[in-house]
Amino acid sequence: MQLREMELDLVRILQKDARISTEDLGKMLQVPAKEIEEAVEKLEKANILVRYSSIVDWSKVDGHEGVTAMIDVKVVPKRGVGFDEVAHRIYRYKEVKSVYLMSGAYDLSVTVEGRSMHEVATFVSEKLSTLDSVLSTTTHFQLKKYKHDGTIFGDHGEDRRIVVSP
């Protein structure tokens, strides 16, 4: 779908912060708020704006640390459907947060979340590795999150920018 320049700008703004009001978006893009509402509705119907979500730093919430693992998966693609069928089977598991087709040594990159390393290991050994198309897996556990989707986590030290005031 071809988007107008205003719609592209709107998508870029909402990707960074979906909580901006339509009035503020209208001011930023120099169009009426009604036009913003219509554009958002159009983008949602076209599945360009798919979901609005928050980024949460779970490491700051006691009892909710959890474990995230990135799993490289080597698979045998099936004739006629390629990697799509096995990717579909994998992303249907509740533990799986994302699946990407990759170039390089492995075919799929799978992100899995669990309450413990044991829970993730059990998922890999009992569910993922047992799929008939899966040849091998390599699991990488996240130890610390520094930046995600452009958001920096943790304490960054003091702000070193020069203060500018009128």
From TrEMBL:
Pfam families: AsnC_trans_reg, HTH_AsnC-type. It comes from the Bacteria. The keyword Glycoprotein does not apply. The keyword Transcription applies. Residues 71-144 form the Transcription regulator AsnC/Lrp ligand binding domain. SUPFAM superfamilies: Dimeric alpha+beta barrel, Winged helix' DNA-binding domain. SMART domains: HTH_ASNC. One of its GO terms (molecular function) is sequence-specific DNA binding. Residues 9-44 form the HTH asnC-type domain. Keywords: DNA-binding, Transcription, Transcription regulation. This is AsnC family transcriptional regulator. The lineage of its organism: Bacteria, Bacillati, Bacillota, Bacilli, Bacillales.
